[in-house]
């Protein structure tokens, strides 16, 4: 027989672990680069940009539009990279706590 109370306790326990893990994500960082490494962006697990590094050879007025495109590309890559890390961390935090229901990833409910 299905134990609803046990299930609810597991959900609360998973929520607490996820909340704790979310607080730790500020320490998680990821980098994205574009233009063969000429532009690098570093972001954290709270999806905040921490740093932008631009090769000095790009700092010419005539390269302005290209630099903007490279910054956007590098930032998007950094956010993709940190999102993957966040999903992995959340999966670890809830691993074994939620029932295995085919086709449903309950770990993403809290991410």
Structure description:
The chain is α+β, with helices and mostly antiparallel strands and 111 residues long. The protein has a domain at 23-96: 2-Layer Sandwich (Ybab, Chain: A). The chain is built from 2 helices and 3 strands. It has helices at 4-24, 64-94; strands at residues 29-34, 39-44, 49-54. Strands 1-2-3 form a 3-stranded antiparallel sheet. A hairpin with a 4-residue loop joins strand 1 and strand 2 (39-44). Helix 1 (4-24) runs antiparallel to helix 2. The two termini are 30 Å apart.
Q: Report the β-strand fraction as a percent range.
A: 15-25%
Distance between the termini: 30 Å
Number of strands: 3
Q: SSE order, as H and E?
A: HEEEH
What general outline do the C-alpha atoms trace? rod-shaped
- Enumerate how many helices there are, as a single number: 2
Coiled coil: 4-31
InterPro entries: YbaB-like_sf (IPR036894), YbaB/EbfC (IPR004401)
GO molecular function: DNA binding
Protein name: Nucleoid-associated protein GCM10007049_35160
Q: What is the topological layout?
A:
Layout: H1 4-24, E1 29-34, E2 39-44, E3 49-54, H2 64-94
Antiparallel strand pairs: 1-2, 2-3
Helix pairs in contact: 1-2
List keywords for this structure.
single chain, 111 residues, alpha+beta, Ybab, Chain: A, 2 helices, 47% helix
